[in-house]
Amino acid sequence: MRQPRFAGTWYPSQSKKLDDDLSHYLQLAKAKSNQHPKSPSDPHHVLAIICPHAGYMFSGQTAAFAYERLKTGKYKRVFLLGPSHHIAFKGIALPSENAFATPLGDLQIDRTVLQEFLRQPYFHEMDNVFDCEHSLEMQLPWIRKTLGEIKLVPLAVGMVNNDEITQIADTIKTELAEGDLIVVSSDFTHYGPRFDYQPFGQPRSQEELQAQIKDLDLKALNSLQTLDSGSLLDFYESTRDTICGIYPCAILLSLLPRNTNIDLLDYATSQDMQRDFDGNSVSYMAIVCTSTDKKVGTIEKGENQQRSSNLSQADGQALLKIAKLSLRDYLLGHKKDPVEYAQLLTSDERLRFMDKRGVFVTLYKKSSTKTDHGRYHKELRGCIGYIYPNKPLLLAVSQNTINAACSDPRFNPVSLNEADHLTIEISVLTKPRTIANWQEIKLGQDGIVLRKGRSQSVFLPKVAIEFGWDLPQTLSQLSLKAGLSVYDWQENAQFEIFQSQSFSE
Q1: Are 395 and 386 in contact (CB under 8 A)?
Q2: pTM for the model
Q3: Deepest of 120, 122, 154, 237, by most Cβ within 10 A of its Cβ?
């Protein structure tokens, strides 16, 4: 049994006082909600909520708006996702206990699900994360109050990139069932010197500053409403917004069905509860995710699947044209939205290029000398991509072309004068699948993902052929690339394979 750490400080430790406070917050939320017209999504099933996790005196009333929406649902289990504020790690941390205690009663943990997760990449048992983390604990009394003795699947989320988000979401989807609810714990913009985040310059007044903060928070909401984790992370990177639960929110977007409505129920900041402005502000939003689907994690027909596993040569030439235009426009300072390039495509191409695909883009310097086999020598100039299908093909090609030219840490950024002397190769990948044994790998046909513990590396199918390696040599090099020893691939390593279709100029 894990005992509460923040009871008595961030929220009342006495059960009656806590129960009275939560009841009061819920009653006020219900009364205010009844004053507003119902949205079209109100009759839909609530699949998930996003709630703040500050002390209840600051964010309790906002959180109540989300939990009040759960009163009509019949839930069997809660998947609770929250960020780690104090301990940095990659992936997902799980507790070892069987239950979490709250002043309102205990919540049993679904150990069967956690044991399944621990067999998968990126999931680790890390009690020290839960020893000091408040983001999950602050939701527990609310869950116990509104949903009773429900089973809990607590997931503390560390740092993850978009590829890892896709894999983690796929793992979680295998355990989700009808009657499951997802609760994401997140505050939004943390503004001020305390958080080293003051992006607006010197505002003329506190009112102007609060309006600027709210505008930024609503832009974050708009990114959530795209239902695309990549778009949310792009917003996060471009604004450097201090959303503490950004990665749990991104995972949520990869779990929701495409017909989900995401609605804001209430908005507040810490300044609403303070008399004197000290230059710092934390934003709180209560957000509800509803759908006509009864099950979160549903994969709709065609979603994240390839309508056609193979692209035509004409498709490849269209993608190469988009890659060249993307690079040239970027180097000229014309930072276009990749969607603009869709105007150059046929309607069928636009449909195919909206499929989510893994993509690598490789840049080579042009050469006038040939090999003994009559091919021109290739000198690598940059290579970056996504292994997993987390972005539409059009977007992935455009972004990875720019990233290969300007963000590959092995090379200096490509200059405008240099661009005309480069050739582009685009590799479109199938979705990786897990294999039981490394001996299943077909060298030259399969791309390989090696994963051991928290280490990971990948080779495209062409790598082994270009270097003339046999399979053990390839896996040894893959092991070294992951930062492991040359023989680490031989024991307790996991492998995934994928195929690649390449197009080049």
Answers
A1: no
A2: 0.73
A3: 154
